């Protein structure tokens, strides 16, 4: 079977929904500083399923982007990473750098946060698409690659793919650039799509269009999606499952409706109260007081205790483990499981 | 691109006019009396007057300027006071020689400098990064005139591999191989400083480009490190052009030392000699041609940058 046929079959094959594609277990990413290592991501575990979206939700600095980049092993040289990242039955953390290069973009693709910066300013859009298709040997032949590039552009909802293919990134609008970045990401029909704050840099109206596009593509291509965002609204709209991150850990996770409908962790509850929504007057919004502490100066015990309104004595003594709640979710809070102390 | 080109060409006209004004009037500031130099300090007032009239030196300065510029535009740069010949011919020959030396030195500087810069930025081995840094630092640290003398002592006087000066062998005045043979020592000497500057500035440009967010995204697309580097180099080429253009410009005006040390009959040596003879027309023409070459180099660099980098085209001409 030639590579062209393979990609066509992949495109039209009915995706197997709910099959676990990527399994991350106990992922810890630290950065070397002087002689010590500061862990930015601490023991994060989650699974991505085909056709489903997991949203990593949290404030900036909570380690959600580092988690996403660690999955692609796109962390800087001074980072120390441990745990397990299994794509199918392949362990990514022990894979050779060369195999990892081939895997990126082909099996795990990234939609960047800021499409203005993420597209090469020097190459035309068409040439950037062709390059990815060529490197991953998806399509052979210059002409075929150009055709496939136009096809990809129209698949992400660009009505005049020819014009866009001949344009440079700076000649396109923000929404258009993000569509192009998505076209590049899905060029090789990846099994896993990682979107790092994909709508943060866009206008609100364009945000909605891009989110629509994500849903549409997921339905058609059946990718497992990891969506990183700080925006509860985006999470509400996109997530099948949600993992709320705080201070480098997942503090609450479960099916999206349950996490958002009956939050069990005070941090999740506080996040939801700070969210503007129709019908909620501005005065009713309650911001979370204080700042998340920097990784190097985390308080003892539960890292959220300095900002938590339910803080009590036990909070400073141990860091609660992620345990099953009374609903279908898991949460890491002493209130959910008082006295279930796990040595940390 | 056409719009960029025409804007850039239009901008060149006022620059050239400005250059001509500065060149003409600066030369007037050179102390000394050209007529006294020609006819001697004890000549009669009538003789002095006659000579002044003959060279147009008795007219008002602005008139002299307009006449000079008008003639210069027609390729007539006047007559040399000291040599009694046409300035255009002398300057043209000297400039060709300078250009030969400059282009030779510039090619070495750009190739070696860019190579060193890539080694400094991309090499995985610490030793080769260090070594390249040291070479680039050393080459900017030595003044041309002392380097020239050392090179002559070692390679011409002691080892006798290359001639110490001049452009051609007396016996084979037009031979190409003889020219190259004579070109090597002054070429290397002139190339040293620009090589180091290009290496250091281009490696900084490469490092800066590596930090651009798109570079990281190229890795996320699954491009190999080698391909990513090609993108980085492509993205830094506009900087390389700017840096090299400046260095070529400085070389054109700054090879005086090298030309004097190696007796290279170029424009630097010509002007240097003419200043001591108060030969105004030659000084003016020499500086004008050098300045012109500088302006043209910058023009070529800007146009090439625009052709290479769509960001430059988009932002338009900035003076």
Q: How many distinct folded domains of chain A? A: 2
Q: CATH H-level name of chain B... which superfamily?
A: MetI-like
Number of strands of chain A: 12
Mean pLDDT of chain B: 82
Number of helical segments with 4 or more residues of chain A: 12
> SSE string of chain A, helix = H, strand = E?
HEEEHEEHEHHHHHEHEHEEHHEE
User: Rg of chain B from C-alpha positions?
Assistant: 24 Å
| Structural Rg of chain A | 21 Å
Which homologous superfamily in CATH is the superfamily of the largest domain in chain A? P-loop containing nucleotide triphosphate hydrolases
Morphology call of chain A: globular
Report the total helices of chain B: 14
The span between the termini of chain A is: 52 Å
Compact description:
The complex is a heterodimer of chains A (344) and B (319). Chain A has 344 residues and is an alpha/beta fold. In chain A, 32% of the residues lie in helices and 22% in strands.
Secondary-structure blueprint:
The complex is a heterodimer of chains A (344) and B (319).
Chain A lengths: L2 H10 L7 E14 L2 E14 L3 E5 L6 H8 L7 E9 L2 E2 L5 H7 L4 E4 L3 H4 L6 H11 L6 H14 L5 H5 L8 H12 L6 E5 L7 H18 L2 E6 L2 H7 L2 E6 L2 E7 H6 L4 H8 L49 E2 L5 E2 L13
Parallel strand pairs in A: 3-8, 3-9, 6-7, 7-8
Antiparallel strand pairs in A: 1-2, 1-4, 4-5, 9-10, 10-12, 11-12
Chain B lengths: L1 H27 L5 H6 L5 H10 L6 H13 L13 H36 L3 H16 L2 H15 L17 H35 L2 H8 L4 H30 L1 H6 L5 H11 L2 H29 L1 H6 L4
Helix pairs in contact in B: 1-13, 5-6, 5-8, 5-10, 5-12, 5-13, 6-8, 7-8, 8-10, 10-13, 12-13
Task: Describe this entry's structure for a reader.
The complex is a heterodimer of chains A (344) and B (319). Chain A has 344 residues and is an alpha/beta fold. Chain A has two domains: 3-239, Rossmann fold (3-Layer(aba) Sandwich); 264-331, no CATH class. Helix content of chain A is 32%, strand content 22%. Chain A contains twelve helices and twelve strands. Chain A has helices spanning 3-12, 64-71, 97-103, 115-118, 125-135, 142-155, 161-165, 174-185, 204-221, 232-238, 256-261, 266-273; strands spanning 20-33, 36-49, 53-57, 79-87, 90-91, 108-111, 192-196, 224-229, 241-246, 249-255, 323-324, 330-331. Chain A has an eight-stranded mixed β-sheet, with helices on both faces. In chain A, helix 9 links the parallel strand 7 and strand 8. The longest helix of chain A is centred in the middle third of the chain and has 18 residues, at 204-221. Chain A is globular, with a radius of gyration of 21 Å. With 319 residues, chain B is mainly α. Chain B has a single domain (2-18, 91-315), classed as MetI-like (MetI-like fold, Orthogonal Bundle), CATH 1.10.3720. Helix content of chain B is 78%, strand content 0%. Chain B contains 14 helices and no strands. Chain B has helices at residues 2-28, 34-39, 45-54, 61-73, 87-122, 126-141, 144-158, 176-210, 213-220, 225-254, 256-261, 267-277, 280-308, 310-315. In chain B, helix 5 runs antiparallel to helix 6 (126-141) and helix 10 (225-254) packs antiparallel against helix 13. The longest helix of chain B is centred in the first third of the chain and has 36 residues, at 87-122. Chain B is globular. The mean pLDDT of chain B is 82. The A-B interface holds A 72, 74, 101-106, 109-110, 112, 114, 117-123, 131-132, 135-136, 168, 170-171, 181, 184, 188 and B 212-214, 216-225, 227, 231, 234-235, 309-311, 314.
């Amino acid at each position: 079977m030639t590579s062209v046929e393979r990609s066509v079959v992949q495109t039209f094959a009915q995706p197997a929904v709910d099959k676990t594609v990527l399994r991350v277990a106990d992922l810890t990413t630290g950065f070397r500083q002087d002689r010590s290592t500061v862990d930015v991501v601490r023991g994060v575990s989650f699974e991505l399923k085909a056709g489903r979206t997991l949203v990593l939700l949290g404030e900036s600095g909570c380690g959600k982007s580092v988690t996403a980049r660690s999955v692609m092993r796109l962390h800087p040289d001074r980072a120390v990473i441990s745990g397990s990242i299994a794509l199918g039955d392949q362990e990514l953390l022990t894979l050779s750098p060369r195999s990892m290069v081939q895997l990126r973009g082909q099996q795990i693709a990234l939609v960047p946060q800021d499409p203005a910066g993420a597209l090469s300013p020097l190459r035309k859009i068409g040439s950037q698409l062709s390059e990815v298709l060529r490197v991953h040997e998806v399509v052979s032949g210059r002409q075929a690659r150009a055709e496939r590039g136009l096809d990809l552009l129209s698949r992400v909802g660009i009505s005049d793919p020819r014009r866009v293919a001949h344009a440079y990134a700076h000649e396109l609008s923000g929404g258009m650039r993000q569509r192009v970045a998505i076209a590049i990401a899905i060029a090789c029909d990846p099994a896993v799509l990682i979107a790092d704050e994909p709508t943060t840099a866009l206008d609100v109206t364009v945000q909605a269009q891009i989110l629509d596009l994500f849903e549409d593509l997921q339905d058609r291509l059946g990718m497992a999606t990891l969506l990183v965002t700080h925006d509860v609204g985006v999470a509400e709209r996109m997530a099948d499952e949600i993992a709320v991150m705080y201070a480098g850990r997942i503090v609450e996770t479960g099916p999206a409706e349950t996490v958002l409908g009956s939050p069990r962790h005070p941090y999740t509850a506080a996040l939801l109260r700070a969210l503007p929504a129709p019908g909620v007057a501005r005065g009713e919004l309650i911001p979370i007081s204080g700042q998340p502490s920097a990784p190097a100066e985390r308080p003892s015990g539960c890292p959220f205790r300095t900002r938590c309104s339910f803080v009590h004595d036990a909070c400073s003594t141990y860091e609660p483990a992620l345990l099953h709640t009374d609903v279908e979710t898991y949460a890491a809070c002493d209130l959910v499981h008082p006295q279930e102390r796990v040595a940390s | 691109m056409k719009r960029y080109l025409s804007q850039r060409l239009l901008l060149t006209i006022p620059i050239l006019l400005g250059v001509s004004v500065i060149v003409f009037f600066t030369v007037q500031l050179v102390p000394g009396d050209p007529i006294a130099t020609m006819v001697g300090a004890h000549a009669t007032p009538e003789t002095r007057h006659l000579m002044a009239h003959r060279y147009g030196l008795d007219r008002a300065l602005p008139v002299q300027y307009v006449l000079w510029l008008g003639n210069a535009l027609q390729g007539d740069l006047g007559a040399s006071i000291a040599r009694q010949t046409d300035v255009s011919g002398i300057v043209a020959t000297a400039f060709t020689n300078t250009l030969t030396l400059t282009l030779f030195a510039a090619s070495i500087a750009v190739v070696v400098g860019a190579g060193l810069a890539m080694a400094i930025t991309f090499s995985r081995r610490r030793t080769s990064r260090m070594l390249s840094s040291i070479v680039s630092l050393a080459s900017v640290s030595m003044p041309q005139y002392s380097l020239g003398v050392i090179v002559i002592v070692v390679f011409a006087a002691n080892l006798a591999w290359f001639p110490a000066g001049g452009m051609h062998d007396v016996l084979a005045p037009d031979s190409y191989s003889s020219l190259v043979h004579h070109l090597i020592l002054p070429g290397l000497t002139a190339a040293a400083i620009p090589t180091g500057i290009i290496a250091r500035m281009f490696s900084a440009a490469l490092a800066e480009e590596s930090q651009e967010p798109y570079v990281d995204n190229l890795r996320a697309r699954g491009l190999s490190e080698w391909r990513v580097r090609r993108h980085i180099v492509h993205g830094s080429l506009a900087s390389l052009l700017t840096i090299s253009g400046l260095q070529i410009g400085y070389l054109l005006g700054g090879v005086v030392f090298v030309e004097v040390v190696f007796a290279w009959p170029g424009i630097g040596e010509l002007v240097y000699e003419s200043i001591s003879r108060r030969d105004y027309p030659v000084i003016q023409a020499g500086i004008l041609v050098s300045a012109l070459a500088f302006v043209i180099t910058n023009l070529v660099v800007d146009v090439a940058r625009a052709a290479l980098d769509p960001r430059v085209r988009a932002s338009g001409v900035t003076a």
